């Protein structure tokens, strides 16, 4: 079971998360960051430079500008580009363009799932089918109705929807959305994913430094719970 931890904002948090046993570390970045916690491209690059080769470097962007995405990738150099903006803003053909410009880059496409809405009234399965030919991973995450971006809500959704998506595709799926050390084993039991992701539940309740937000005890508990599920 792969364990992915977001949002890494500093070298210190990266070291903490790696030492806690995470397989993937996620860093959100932008040319001109507009969201709290998103780093500049140069800051993200410095974090990734200390990550060992056996830990996957996931770079998250919400940009919808393909040229800007390619330019930023040349600076940050993640192993995997996590597309987490409006899914309909970047078509599969545009993702092919990104991959052509960036040798060996893998794509993690976020698949949005809404809480409290049945599968038949969501587009998640359609998105998975549409994007599977250009995706190396799917990140199935809760989406807020009020935001264009996918994820960072801290809210769970129906894990049976995750199960349906996972069973519909050969793309490795990582599940996210309000997962914690208390509920991750049940989410894994229901959906049988490739991996699990945590952001909000592994943060300090009241971080003293907004660049160092990951609580080592919570990260270790999450990793342990996922690996023992």
From TrEMBL:
Keyword set, alphabetical order: Amino-acid biosynthesis, Aromatic amino acid biosynthesis, Isomerase, Tryptophan biosynthesis
GO molecular function, one term: isomerase activity
Superkingdom in the source lineage: Bacteria
EC number: 5.3.1.24
CDD domains per record: PRAI (cd00405)
Pfam families xrefs: PRAI (PF00697)
Domain N-(5'phosphoribosyl) anthranilate isomerase (PRAI), chain residue ranges per copy: 5-214
Family assignment from sequence similarity: Belongs to the TrpF family.
Name of the protein in question: N-(5'-phosphoribosyl)anthranilate isomerase
Organism (species): Alkalibacillus silvisoli
Taxonomy of the source species: Bacteria, Bacillati, Bacillota, Bacilli, Bacillales
